[in-house]
Design a protein that fits this description.
The complex is a heterodimer of chains A (about 150) and B (about 350).
Chain A: E1 8-12, E2 17-22, E3 25-30, E4 35-39, H1 41-51, H2 56-62, H3 71-83, E5 87-93, H4 100-107, E6 116-118, H5 122-126, H6 129-132, E7 148-149
Helix pairs in contact in A: 1-4, 2-3
Chain B: E1 3-4, H1 9-22, E2 30-35, E3 38-44, H2 47-56, H3 61-64, E4 69-77, E5 88-89, H4 96-105, E6 108-113, E7 118-123, E8 128-133, H5 149-157, E9 162-164, E10 166-171, E11 174-179, H6 186-194, E12 199-202, E13 206-211, E14 214-219, E15 223-227, H7 228-233, E16 251-255, H8 256-259, E17 268-278, E18 285-289, H9 291-305, H10 310-323, E19 326-331, H11 335-350
Helix pairs in contact in B: 6-11, 9-10
The chains are: A alpha+beta (about 150), B alpha/beta (about 350).
Chain lengths: ~150, ~350
């Protein structure tokens, strides 16, 4: 385990990541790529703790019982959130003392923290119609010529 | 030809809007529509597009008066107007989001429908807009049921209202929002409802706003859609003549007030959000859902279909889903039973 890596505090990656809370559950939208994520159960608890300033290391430490929501599962979930581009590590160190009840709430869940990702908006956000049209169609024209007649 | 990119597209927007505004049109080519909090002035070189608007909008001038925002949309096309500016894309990597952000930073909203080479721009400063088409009928087929929806969306984005991709039903002015992607059962539920004593402000798009501490839904279009099977399910023969031809989705488009006189409500006070689902089961059932589930039903289709202002749409949709209790609405097979279950449910919301 890269212990130093997990001592960080995360923040939302940028202003295009929107996190909406509903009674402890979350929907997170990343407008950079049109993907959105649903989080409930252990995932929602971990997401809230992370975005409130807890470090992955501290979260893993309080979830010290091995199992589906044990320390490895917590850290793997943090890695996943980072790889999705939802959060980025900051140089800050967490001053938050996590209550024991947090670990209990996480470990009450029978499934490890995981998020459901939806990418039906990605098609819209990632589309580049200027460069996706076949040249044989005649319009638009591909780079490096002027990209296409907009009219 | 002038070359444009995402960074300077607002200058093209300005020139296009100004050119369209200078085209002189006689009074027969102007129409005003009173939508909730929005005065929509449409001027078109072609009367057919004005007729399209007149058939689609839930125009309520006496209710919506002269208050609220005002936008003027000029509907123009290159075949009938030679003065319109042209441009050539010179953009190394196109992104609809970056284009929307660049336009917004410069006081505009806009999209380019590549398949139809159709420009739509709104200038916030004076509400002047252009819909620039290649020819009079070169617009996407989905415009027919709700023309100019992008402009209406952008105008509401700059107010405190939300154009939501949702349906609504009510009883005695108390209503529920129906959220879900296409095929979830919104229109079928609205159809069952209006044929069995409920009222509506729309099956596909409604305007949601806040009056005091109350969320309300108001109509923006008077048309609804249903396929032949859905019509037959409620005992209507689509071949009977009143529906004309099916549209590009193989759906029949008709006015809800025309089909069920008295069903058009001016406003519904929202008390819940329901997430319909076609289950092919026997009985209709209503069971609690979470706000998270409600947002997953409400927001994505609005975000997909209404371009620009995505962060705001997400935030306002989330507010609605936090405020209104949410329920799964598992649709049975019998439209009358669906409507009866819903009437009873709405009755519990009023007590």
């Amino acid at each position: 385990m890269e212990s130093n890596k997990y001592e960080c505090v995360y923040r939302l990656a940028n202003n295009d990541v929107a996190s909406e809370e509903f009674d402890g559950e979350f929907v997170v939208l990343d407008l950079n790529n049109g993907r959105y994520y649903s989080m409930d159960g252990a995932a929602a608890i971990v997401w809230k703790a992370l975005t409130d300033g807890a470090s992955p290391k501290d979260l893993a430490a309080v979830c010290d019982e091995e199992g589906k929501c044990g320390p490895q599962a917590i850290l793997a979930f943090c890695d996943q959130l980072e790889s999705y581009g939802l959060v980025v590590p900051t140089p800050e160190r967490s001053g938050i003392v996590l209550p024991d009840t947090l670990a209990q709430a996480i470990q009450l869940n029978e499934t490890p923290p995981e998020t459901t990702m939806y990418d039906d908006l990605a098609e819209l956000m990632m589309a580049d119609p200027i460069h996706e049209v076949d040249e044989s169609e005649g319009w638009p024209v591909r780079k490096p010529e002027p990209n296409g007649a907009a009219d | 030809m002038r070359q444009i990119n995402i960074q300077n597209v607002h200058r093209f927007a300005a020139d296009a809007i100004d050119a369209a505004s200078r085209i002189e049109l006689d009074t027969s080519r102007h129409r005003q529509f009173g939508l909730p909090g929005l005065q929509l002035h449409v001027r078109s070189t072609e009367r057919d597009y004005l007729d399209l608007c007149a058939g689609a909008f839930a125009d309520q001038p006496s209710i919506n008066g002269a208050s609220g925002k005002r936008i003027t949309v000029s509907i123009v096309n290159r075949q009938s107007s030679a003065c319109l500016p042209s441009a050539l894309w010179d953009e190394p990597a196109f992104s609809i989001k970056r284009m929307a952000e660049s336009l917004h930073r410069n006081g505009y909203d806009g999209v380019f429908e590549f398949d139809y080479r159709l420009w739509q721009f709104l200038r916030a400063e004076d509400g002047a807009c252009i819909q620039l088409m290649q020819s009079a009928d070169a617009f996407p087929p989905w415009e027919a049921a709700f023309p100019l929806r992008q402009f209406v969306h952008w105008a509401y984005q700059r107010s405190d209202r939300l154009l939501a991709h949702a349906g609504a039903l009510g009883l005695h002015e108390v209503g529920i929002l129906l959220a879900g992607s296409g095929g979830a059962g919104k229109s079928g539920t609205v159809l069952a409802g209006i044929l069995n004593g409920l009222s509506t402000v729309g099956d596909d798009y409604v305007v949601v706003s806040r009056t005091g501490d109350q969320l309300v839904a108001e109509p923006v279009v008077r048309l609804m859609k249903q396929d032949a099977e859905g019509l037959r399910r409620v005992g209507i023969d689509p071949a009977a003549g009143q529906f004309g031809r099916a549209n590009w989705q193989n759906k029949y488009v008709f006015g809800y007030e025309d089909l069920a006189p008295g069903s058009a409500a001016h406003r519904l006070r929202l008390k819940a959000i329901l997430l319909p689902k076609v289950t092919h089961g026997g009985q209709t059932a209503i069971r609690p859902a979470s706000g998270r589930e409600a947002l997953l039903a409400l927001a994505p289709s609005s975000l997909y279909q209404l371009k620009g202002g995505w962060s705001n749409t997400m935030r306002l949709s989330a507010e609605i889903c936090r405020e209104l209790p949410a329920y799964h609405f598992e649709l049975g097979d019998n439209p009358r039973e669906i409507a009866g279950t819903l009437s009873e449910f709405i009755g519990t919301l009023t007590s």
